From TrEMBL, chains A, B, C, D, E, F:
UniProt entry tagged with the keyword Signal: no
Domain Mop, residue spans: 7-72
Keyword terms: Molybdenum
Keyword Hydrolase: no
Pfam families on file: TOBE (PF03459)
Entry protein name: Molybdopterin-binding protein
Protein's organism: Microbacterium pumilum
Record-linked InterPro entries: Mo/tungstate-bd_C_term_dom (IPR008995), Mop_domain (IPR004606), Transp-assoc_OB_typ1 (IPR005116)
Domain of life: Bacteria
Length: 73, 73, 73, 73, 73, 73
């Protein structure tokens, strides 16, 4: 299945470059460099295959606002 | 209740500065500037009060890896 | 901000039609008819405005696999 | 442990039939056919065992409203 | 709609007593005492109405394992 | 990377003792005894290593209010 192209309600769509893709048994970890900060995403192996995710590729880290916490020192 | 100080398993702890705090009836939106990218967090009003969150304050956007998706153009 | 058009890792992208949009103080509820089943999404008011969500519009309910539970009778 | 029988606050309880169960090292993927749409759930292997989830079994995909995003073409 | 009675894959089903229900514009906060610890749930107002949630009522806090983080001092 | 010490907006910070740590290919399960109730967390293997999580160690189960559901019998 090729994923449709869409605009999405998730408030956070941070543009960067994929710097690491690690597949596990069913779950993969994808790391994206967002202007110097590294964001780690835990996604299905199937998603990695369907989107053809590879190191060096431009990509967005997409995060729903209700999944973001705030912390202070 | 004062929140305890702790180190947390969440893989994503992005340091920035709070640029907006908007309280609703029960849910508040906090926006954090992370090196030029704005991250929006939807948290309880109670959390805003307990942590004393204010515009201009240094803060982290904390996100569990399993809550991050990856998108490509 | 206009949201970029993208393909996303979320495994569940269910196509349907928006049947209800209810805005609260900061959080809106959007209901989508997916072939007879109604799916309720809780999103920010800002997302409703940015995407121009309206009753009658075709839309996808997008859900990360790690956010889906399984239940049996 | 046998899970208790309960009614739950999650707004989305979509009834269907399990069409695939794939176990990984710790995480399993369960696919449910909801009136023609396939919903993928990522759950623990332990949940698959405790609920006795099998292909062909009727089941619900249960999703909290705050975990549903909305997308448009 | 009366919610169906079901057994669910969520690994965490903590039994307690409801000690507070606060409704907002669209989102309600429900606090449950679990053997002395208070757990706060943010759910839709509609869920509060459909389940008839009230202070003093026995209830479970239900949490998917992938939504639990671990922290240390 | 050593995780910074912080106070966090997540409403639920339940103190207990780690009773089990099981690593998978990429995802680990950590079980924490909270005054007699066991809470299961699904986190990355990397988080287990970085925080040095071990059986017998005091730890918090941290859960965002928007990830808690309420169920009744």
């Amino acid at each position: 299945m090729r994923e449709p192209t869409m605009r999405i309600s998730a408030r956070n769509q941070l543009k960067g470059t994929i710097v690491e893709v690690t597949k596990g048994a069913t779950t993969a970890h994808v790391r994206i460099d967002i202007g110097g900060s590294i964001v780690t995403a835990s996604v299905t192996n199937a998603a990695v295959d369907d989107l053809g995710l590879e190191v060096g590729q431009p990509a967005y880290a997409v995060i729903k606002a209700s999944d973001v916490m705030v912390a202070v020192d």
